[in-house]
Amino acid sequence: MSNKIVKNLSSLRFTIVLISLLGLMFAIGLWVPQIKLVKGLYLVWQKNSPNLVAFLDLFGLTTIYTSPITVTLWAFFFLNLSLVIWQRIPLVRHRISLSEKLITAPERGAGYPFNRTFLLPKGMGGEQVIQQLRKRRFTVLGDGTSFYAVKNRLSPVAFLIFHLSFFLILLGGLISVYTEFIGYLDLAQGETFNGEPGRYNAVPIPKIPPIGSLPTASFTVKSIVPRVVHNTPTGISVMLLDAAGQSHEVDINVPYKTDHASFVFKHLGVAPLFELKDASGSTLAESYLKLDVLKGRPDRFSLGGFNFTATFYPDYVLDNGKRATRSMEFNNPIFFISVERDGKKLGEGLVPKNGSLLFAGYRLEMRDMPFWVRFYVVKQRGLSILYLGFALATVGVIWRLLFYKREILGAVRETDGAPSLLIAGRSEYYKKLAEDEFLELFEKITGKPVER
Amino acid sequence: MAFWEVIFYWVTLVIYSLAAGGFIYSFVFKNPRVLPKITALVGAGFVAHTAIILARFYATGHLPWSGHYEYVLMGGWFIIAGTLFVAWQNKSLVGLAVGTVPLVIIMMGYGYMQNPGLTPMAASLKTVWLYIHVYFAWISFSAYALAMAAGVLFLLKSKSDQLPVPNPAYEKYPSLDRLDELIFRYVVFGFITDTIMICAGAIWAKDLWGSYWAWDPVETWSLISWLIYGITIHLRVTFKWREKRLAWLAVAAMSTVIICFFGVNLVVDTSLHIFQVR
Questions:
Q1: Is the preceding omega at residue A204 within 30 degrees of 0, hence cis?
Q2: In this predicted complex, what is the ipTM?
């Protein structure tokens, strides 16, 4: 009974069933809104079809990639893979072994579908043929009268490498999940960060690792310069100065890396310095404010007891009497600000850099307009194992599928007084295409065209 | 679109359409003699196709890598390049164009209706990983397209062979045995480049988005597609799936690649693989 279970669990049929089911689960994940990926959509859907969503929630189909069903499938997949690899090891060892027993007469070579006789030119014997085969990276056993030649003998090892790489990817993935810290960090130009946990944004809540620690980093944001060309963001240069006095430039695709952590640029905002003055010109309040206004949405802030709503136009223009932006380029950056207190609107107007808004005897001045950035901070261990897995998967798949094994049995015989070469050949994966390859090979070796 | 780009776009489409018509003529009227001329026509179309890319490169300063229009432009180029390359290597494979040329025409027609505007290179695309990831993506797409085309040819030829008088138009093409092995060979080549594409994409994603795998819809589809071709290889090697079953599988599996490249972003707008950042 247990043998039967092991046999089924280790069968390739089971592998294919598991891969198909995993593929199906991934496909379902594309149709069923996933809480962690598209939360907004999920909530709307839940509101409209509460019973259906409750049913899907029950089976974990709204968190499908980590649902018990998917995890079980993965567990079976790796169990199956382990058993398949374990069973294949003796087979691989057998297939890469070299012994004199492999030298058989081509006429009796069972399992060698390609059979052909080539006339050898004058002066060419079996030894020269072997020499030519060795030149073409064949390993040859035997002598000029009878030989066995094999190319890419170790190719079956690549099967093990490719499939073992999955375990490295799994290991690297698991280590990275369990040591993962994720947090968002908003920093304006001039601000310093010393790794304080409280500086990470509360929403979304930072993901604290079950194992491991928070990133230790210390730096000051020296400058933030966004680049927009023809309305397309083409880059952002965020200069950081670390505690050791070393400069680091962060850009899109170029995170700041330290202590197994990456500070990835995620979002850009404007951090204007507003100063509120009374009628006598005395400063009542002043502050740099991180406003999230770059996608055309207004943002709010409070200063000196007043509530302000700010809309930002990076390239301000009056279009048919309406406020608009010509592009995303920062050619004419202007805020439109409205101010209210206790629900009563007190004034509104345009405020460019070094400009001001007058309302109810007060004056709001914008003295500076730097930027702020949001970093996606992620710390993970195990990435090197994961990348090693990727590298081995790539090497394994190339080696196994491109450098596959070809075997040749050869013997030199006398036919009508002339020496001729008898060949039996076989190749992994291919039969007809291997025939073409063998014909071409021996045409080149013997220098005589062959009838096809 | 740049001025010369528009001109060459239409020239290319017209030439490819004429070539596709030529292939249909060759099959319907059982005339294999016109095949070298049609292949030359595809070659001329390829030159015009290259000119579109150059004109666009001249106008934007970068190769077309982003947005659906640019996807089809480069993708189509790689498919036709692959088709011509195999035809050049082996004259009997000119017929693969019967599957690939119509596919490229449809792709280009679709691309034209998308976003052909000239844009500078978005910041997210400025990395060496783009070239590795996208280059291997297009090679795998091209290889899978050739596998599909070999599958189509296999199915057509096997149907013709069952007739009392087989269509002579198929005589110039490889035997069914060879076509069967070619399907597998192209699938294998596609699978290798697909693997490199996914690995390179994951490494790029770590620097761009902070996560090597985020279950993004395009990412997920590419994994599904990779798994399906992985199954195809296992079915062929271990379960000896051959001939018609393998041909149908190669044709059907191509749909997952098309969905991955073009379909996902039509259905969902949450993919991170929308690089025309505005």
A1: yes
A2: 0.85
